[in-house]
Write a structure and sequence with these properties.
The complex is a heterodimer.
Chain A lengths: L7 E6 L4 H11 L8 E5 L25 H11 L7 H6 L6 E4 L9 E9 L7 E3 L8 H7 L4 E8 L8 E8 L14 E6 L1 H5 L1 H5 L3 H5 L1 E8 L2 E8 L11 H17 L2 E9 L9 H19 L3 E4 L5
Parallel strand pairs in A: 1-11, 1-12, 2-3, 2-7, 3-6, 7-11
Antiparallel strand pairs in A: 4-5, 4-6, 8-10, 9-10
Helix pairs in contact in A: 1-2, 8-9
Chain B lengths: L9 E4 L3 E6 L2 E6 L12 E3 L1 H7 L8 H12 L3 H17 L3 E4 L1
Antiparallel strand pairs in B: 1-5, 2-3, 3-4
Helix pairs in contact in B: 2-3
The chains are: A alpha/beta, B alpha+beta.
Chain lengths: 309, 101
């Protein structure tokens, strides 16, 4: 008798909110057959909220609206790259959440019980961590009928539990990260000579201080420009060497293997558009990570990139 | 400090509260921080509270509400007025209703 091992889809996406759709797709295609815990390997917890959606988190079936398309649009239009996990818990894609942060964060491990629900079960307005007295339980059941309780644990890779079937979710910013996206943005606009002459008066406008913007006025070849940037903010950037990153990937894969962690699906977020993972790192971290995943999961790996989604 | 409620004021539900009638009671769910006594609490209104809440439409003054309820329940306006002002005091304190100018 032979045992056929199930394929493990590895979805590679640009921004992390797309992982929500990938988890839905993996479930609908039978790669995930039970409610699994999420191992979220990331420099950020991505547990943001509260949220209000224009469309419901719950797909209402009709012929013009297939669920895969619905959830792909939902992930793209309604979810942010720091607020996609809690909706996934509510809709039943994820059970408990383990946020595995990089060691350079120096966070403290924690564990807490959480809950999430939507107002009157409509899937549009989410409520987190509602606490009600026992006598209010009946009311709670009516007001928030879709309440999901879950554990949220945080720790570094050494603290992950053993022997689990999981959803493995990796953000490349775990390995190299810029926290401040605003620091990266700069816009240059051409202005008139008169606007250039009036620059001192323009800068006296106190609303500029509130906007936290910085203006540089430039003259180049008899043309005038203003360069607008956000005022620099604190950025705990972590930009290690290639050797250090390869070692970190080794450590991650080693921990998954030694602790007998069995991913049913893997999502990799490049975080390249937002800039959390610096552009110059993205391509080769992804390549190294995929290679190591192939080694870990062997012939079961099925890489799904943007074109196949 | 409690805000004094006068019966010539007009109130409407806050946009940050969702209310729905389920099995004869009104359930109020705050949607934003600072609404209600503490985050993550729910509120219910009994029959009297429901009758008052249903009339907070941003058009009727509390005086109108008291008059209507008094006629409907054939009760003394003074007693009904105390109930209405008492409930509105709680709702205003919890920012679940807003006064309409």
């Amino acid at each position: 008798m032979t045992t056929v091992l199930k394929r493990v889809p590895v979805y590679i996406v640009d921004e992390h909110n797309e992982a929500f759709y990938c988890w839905y797709r993996a479930k609908s295609e039978g790669y995930v057959t039970e409610l699994l815990d999420l191992f979220h390997i990331d420099a950020h917890a991505d547990m943001g909220g509260p949220q209000s959606f224009r469309t419901s988190l719950y797909h209402q079936g009709d012929l013009s609206n297939d669920p895969l398309t619905y959830y792909r649009d939902f992930a793209a239009k309604e979810l942010g790259n720091g607020s996609f996990i809690i909706p996934a818990v509510l809709v039943g894609l994820v059970r408990n959440v383990y946020f595995v942060y990089p060691k350079w964060r120096h966070y403290k491990p924690r564990r807490r019980k959480c809950n999430v629900a939507s107002v009157f079960g409509e899937g549009k307005r989410l409520k987190y961590n509602v606490k009600a007295a026992e006598k209010m339980q009946a009311t709670l059941d009516k007001a928030l009928p879709d309440t999901k309780n879950f554990n949220f644990s945080t720790g570094d890779i050494d603290r992950i539990p053993k022997k689990r079937n999981i959803i493995l979710d990796i953000d490349l910013d775990y390995f190299a990260c810029r926290d401040s996206i605003l620091n990266q943005y700069c816009y240059e606009l051409e202005i008139t000579a008169e606007q250039f002459r009036e620059k001192e008066r323009f800068l006296e406008d106190r609303t500029i201080a509130f906007a936290r913007l910085h203006f540089d006025f430039l003259k180049k070849n008899d043309r005038y420009f203003v360069r607008i940037a956000h005022q620099k903010e604190r950025d705990t950037a972590y930009l290690p060497s290639k050797v250090e990153i390869v070692s970190e990937i080794d450590m991650l894969m080693g921990a998954l293997k030694s602790k007998q962690i069995n991913p049913a699906v893997v999502t990799i977020a490049r975080s390249c558009i937002s800039g959390y993972c610096p552009q110059e790192y993205v391509e080769w971290i992804e390549a190294e990570l995929v290679q190591q995943l192939k080694s870990l999961l062997e012939e079961r790996v099925w890489i799904v990139t943007d074109g196949e989604k | 400090m409690h805000q004094k409620i006068t019966i010539d004021e007009v109130f409407s539900p806050s946009d940050d509260v969702v209310a729905r009638e389920i099995e004869g009671e009104i359930i109020l769910i705050p949607l934003a921080k600072g609404i209600g006594d503490s985050e993550g609490e729910l509120y219910t209104l009994n029959g009297t509270g429901k009758a008052i809440w249903d009339r907070l439409d941003g058009q009727r003054s509390l005086r109108d509400v008291i008059r209507e309820l008094s006629a409907e329940f054939q009760a003394d306006e003074g007693q009904i007025g105390a109930d209405v002002v008492g409930l509105l005091g709680e709702l205003v304190r919890r920012k679940m209703v807003v006064a309409v100018a």
